[in-house]
Design goal:
The protein is an alpha/beta fold. The strands form 2 sheets. A 5-stranded parallel sheet has the order 3-4-5-6-7. A two-stranded antiparallel ribbon has the order 1-2. Helix 1 runs parallel beside helix 4.
């Protein structure tokens, strides 16, 4: 990433295998990044989109604040789970002020990082509780893209059962009032119906399935009587 001379960069905290220097974000960078999220959300609204999705999972930028594995900051932005959540919550609050109360915000999170040095489901539940009431949907996934073993759970293969990650969303739903969505290797319409009808989740999120079969949501709606 090219260095912006307008920022004062911190000391080198590590070097990746490919030689890329890792530097902790400074306060000015964090504040500027919050505004970048706001700008993107505002532009999306201008373009006619009906909902904002914030990706707070899988090792991406926002998740790096949440992860004790990645977040080594010792100021107010790091440390306890409440401090590590400060950045995502600041982004949500700023976007809400910018786009207004009638623009739904969905937050995608990893319920667990599936890593020995990352957070587990218990801490994932704490994260969800801190999000509760501040967004319109908590979109529950798992994993971290930096480690193959964890990424394989983010993107379940055919060698894992359908709905492999739904149990994480179902567990988080027990602890929050905000609607909860599940995602990951869901291809069976009857399973999707059961997940919603049984109250395990409120929403089934589909990605690769609709790329492989664009008519799947139509056929699924006919089968389930319109619940999805």
């Amino acid at each position: 990433m090219p260095v912006n001379p307008g920022f004062v960069y911190g000391t080198i905290d590590g070097i990746r295998e490919e030689g890329v220097e890792i530097r902790a974000m400074q306060y000015e960078q964090i504040e500027a990044m919050i505004q970048k999220y706001c700008d993107a959300a505002s532009f999306a609204r201008q373009c006619g989109y009906n909902m904002i999705t914030l990706h707070g999972g899988h090792g991406w930028q926002m998740h790096q604040f949440l992860s004790p594995r990645d977040n080594k900051l010792t100021d107010k932005w790091g440390g306890s789970v409440e401090s590590r959540m400060r950045f995502p919550l600041a982004v949500i609050e700023a976007i809400r002020k910018r786009v207004g109360p009638d623009m739904p915000i969905e937050f995608r999170m990893s319920a667990t990082e599936c890593l020995p040095d990352g957070y587990d489901l218990d801490e994932g539940i704490k994260i969800a509780k801190l999000l509760d009431g501040k967004v319109e949907m908590i979109h529950v996934s798992v994993g971290h893209h930096e480690i193959d073993a964890a990424a394989m759970k983010t993107h379940p293969t055919m060698f894992l059962p359908d709905g492999y990650n739904t149990s994480y969303a179902a567990e988080i739903k027990k602890h929050v009032k905000t609607p909860v969505g599940t995602v990951g290797a869901l291809t069976d319409p009857e399973m999707m119906e059961e997940l919603i009808a049984s109250g395990q989740v409120d929403v089934v999120n589909l990605g690769r399935q609709t790329l492989a079969d664009p008519d799947l949501p139509i056929s699924t709606t006919r089968l389930t009587g319109g619940l999805l």
